[in-house]
Design a protein that fits this description.
Number of strands: 8
Strand order of the largest sheet: 1-3-2
Order of helices and strands: HHEEEHHHEEHEHEE
Largest sheet: 3 strands, mixed
Oligomer: single chain
Helix content: 25-40%
Distance between the termini: 70 Å
Shape: elongated
CATH superfamily of the largest domain: Metalloproteases ("zincins"), catalytic domain
CATH architecture of the largest domain: 2-Layer Sandwich
Structural class: alpha+beta
Number of domains: 2
CATH topology of the largest domain: Zincin-like
């Protein structure tokens, strides 16, 4: 019986050129082609992606949609008994989608059994990913994903912009600070509305109410710079760490 040679996505230059001209109209079609290409790439590193894995675009079933941008479900959680991979709709750039897709396909390799543990990290490093919870492409794999993004063309999807979180009004005590740094005092929202901020008993100056968001931004900025903030006097103590 005469053997037939299988033509894969990356085995023929002319096939890559033709594919590059195709304008995918459906996200799933683009993702399916990307999955095929990444599976072949991973196979070169002795990492086998299940042939029946299903990839789609959708919000994650667990965790915050603002933080979780990809998800792979085990076969036991699917009625079709296949690994289900979802890429978040907040992603629209081809390279980023491919990077996240590669990460999720690595979960499908062992049916999500190792999580981000040793087996996952070992497989990740074998195919040019960093490994660990935030595993992403590195070195030659970055170049490959950039090339694949050009070959596949634009990801046929418009980014979904999540609504900004609305700050709920505070019903607790508001923090008030003396301008002379005598101390910190607290007042209820009704007191601030009716009579204003309290007067500092030490110096007689009217204190200033500190907005929650203003305080949060200040503390974050100082922490990022490596400084500590004293709660009572709001004084800069010095470097929290060297460098």
């Amino acid at each position: 019986m005469k053997k037939t040679k299988t033509t894969t996505y990356t085995s023929r230059p002319w096939l890559r050129r033709i594919t590059a001209r195709l304008a995918y109209k459906a996200r799933e079609e683009w993702l399916a082609r990307a999955t095929l290409a990444l599976s072949e790439r991973f196979a070169a590193g002795s990492v086998t992606v299940p042939a029946d894995v299903k990839v789609s675009c959708g919000f994650p079933g667990g965790g915050s949609p603002r933080r979780r941008i990809g998800e792979c479900w085990a076969r036991s959680r699917s009625a079709a008994k296949v690994n289900e991979v979802f890429i978040s709709p907040v992603l629209a750039k081809a390279y980023v989608v491919l990077d996240v897709l590669g990460h999720e396909l690595l979960h499908a390799v062992d049916d999500c059994k190792s999580g981000h543990g040793k087996a996952f990290t070992r497989n990740s490093k074998a195919v040019g990913y960093t490994g660990g919870k935030h595993s992403r492409a590195k070195d030659a794999t970055v170049d490959y994903l950039n090339l694949l993004a050009k070959q596949l063309g634009q990801y046929p999807h418009g980014e979904v912009v999540l609504a900004s979180k609305q700050q709920k009004p505070s019903h607790g005590l508001h923090k008030c600070v003396c301008p002379n740094r005598c101390g910190t005092y607290y007042a209820t929202p009704k007191t601030l509305e009716d009579v204003g901020a309290p007067v500092c008993p030490s110096c007689g100056e009217t204190t200033k109410a500190v907005e929650r968001r203003e305080k949060k931004i200040l503390v974050k900025a100082l922490t990022r710079l490596g400084y500590l903030v004293q709660e009572e006097g709001h004084e800069l103590l010095g470097r929290a760490r060297s460098g």
